[in-house]
Every structure is written in C-alpha cells, then in structure tokens.
Amino acid sequence: MSRLNTNQLSLAYGSRQIVQELNLNVPDGIITALVGANGSGKSTILKSMARILMPTGGGVYLDGKMIHRQPTKEVAKQLAILPQNPSAPEGLTVRELVAFGRYPHQKGFGNLSAEDRRMIDWALEATGMSAFADRSVDHLSGGQRQRGWIAMALAQGTEVLLLDEPTTFLDMAHQMEVMNLLEKLNKEQKRTIVMVVHDLNHAARFSQHLVALKAGTVLYEGPPEEVMTCEMLREVFNIDADIVPDPRTGAPLCLSYGLADDPSHAGAANAGLNNNPMLEQHDLRQAERVQALA
C-alpha cells in the first residue's frame, strides 16, 4: 500500500455531499495529477489529504495512520501543501516566507536553528530562488512568487507535496517554469507530488499517474497514455476531442474541438484521422512495443 491513501472517504460542505466513500491510493515517488471538471471534488480531496477539511466518513491515511487524528505539527513534518492563490504579508522577503516552512520543526518561538537555516538555503537553491532571497515577495513575477511558495513547502522537509492548481493565473512561460521545477524535484529527489491541474496536456506530460474525477468519484485512473482517451474526455468533461502523441515527448496530447453534446461538432474530431501521419507513427511505436514484449 502507498504511504498516502484514502479509505471510504466521504466529504461534504454542510449538507452538500461532495465525495462519497472514495478509495484512492497515491503512488509513492511519482507525480499524480487530479483532473476533472469544476465541482468534481479534486480540490476538496486535496484539502482533506492535507488535513484542512475534516471527513464526514472514512479517512485519509499516512503510513497507516489516520491523519485527522494526528497532531497538526506531526502531519506537517510529513506532507506539505501549497493551496490555491496563497498570499503573504506585505513587505515579507522571500527568505522570511521560506522560513515559515520550518515552523513544524521548531519548539516554541525560538530562533532558527542551524538545521533550519540549512534547509531554508537548500530550498532556495533547489527552486532557483537564492538570488531573490532578500527581495520582497510583492516585487516578484508570478512564476518567481510561485517558486518562492514551493520553496517554503520544500523547507518543511517532507517527502509528500500537495499542490492545488500551482499554475493558476500564470502566463505560459511561468506555467512551464513551475511545471519544470516540479518535474525536476520529482526526478532528482523522488518527491511524491499530488497536484490538481486544469490543463490536461500539462497533466499528461508531467505526471506519471492520472486520476480523472466526476462528482467526487474516480472514473479513470492509471498512466496518462491509458487514461487520456476520447471516451474519458467525453464522459468527464463533455468534450469532443482527439488524442494524438506529442511530437516531442510522445505523451498523449488533447486536441479539443467542442462540446460532445453539440451536434454542430458531431464527428468533427474524427475527420481525417485515417490520414493522420502522427497517429500512424504512434500506432507503429505501439506495435513495436507489443512485439518487443512478446
């Protein structure tokens, strides 16, 4: 069993049920992306995994222990979360922001220890933020600011990172900056990363495990090349689309055309597929893989 998992997890906001008896295992040491339409429950599940939202039934388990029954500081030593649109007090420097990540390891309100300072310096270096350590968070670009928040999460020294839409409101360049950083952290440090992602192509490219949710239920789960299908897009997102291999990475790439229930788009996504050279190359690679395994 994975370090982090849910067992019969049920979640609600007041009388509104969001998730019902969810069983989900988060694979260790890889990036897992939670995808789904707005209101599908992905951010709610992430909040519960981070001990922010109390379950109405079942639970979230870390190393076999229900996290909602553990002290907050003990959980924070094992997993860190970056919520949507975090905000920092005005005038706070990047180093001061990252230092907050050491709070779970401190006793009382004492000064930073030598280990605290070492972890802060390491987190700044790992995220490429050392040069901005003394700069005010207010004066950073969107991508730099997000990297600063990720550095704070890294400074906690946890093996598990939870990120809720880490690229929201960022332009394309800053989105790639953040996604490349997460990929680097996973590959070089084997961090277990769970992220809620709206961009399906980012999810397919940067994750190794994809979970597609609808109405708080897991409909599809597995490697992106198995989960990212036309059928999944219709069922989960009501989207009429084609899936083709990315010409550089080979990851499944979503080409959306319209709503699946819009008759004006019916069949549009399938036009010309039989003559698509990218798909022919993809089919050839798939055949070669099957032959190699035979």
UniProtKB/TrEMBL annotation:
GO MF, one annotated term: ATP binding
InterPro entries for the chain: AAA+_ATPase (IPR003593), ABC_transporter-like_ATP-bd (IPR003439), P-loop_NTPase (IPR027417), Siderophore_ABC-ATPase (IPR051535)
Main subcellular localisation: membrane
Database matches in Gene3D superfamilies: P-loop containing nucleotide triphosphate hydrolases
Domain ABC transporter: 4-240
Keywords recorded for this protein, A-Z: ATP-binding, Cell membrane, Ion transport, Iron, Iron transport, Membrane, Nucleotide-binding, Transport
Coiled-coil region: none
Classification lineage: Bacteria, Bacillati, Bacillota, Bacilli, Bacillales
Top-level division of the source organism's lineage: Bacteria
Source species: Cohnella soli
SUPFAM superfamilies: P-loop containing nucleoside triphosphate hydrolases
Subcellular location field: Cell membrane
Membrane protein topology class: Peripheral membrane protein
Keyword DNA repair part of the UniProt annotation: no
CDD domains membership: ABC_Iron-Siderophores_B12_Hemin
Name this protein carries in UniProt: ABC transporter ATP-binding protein
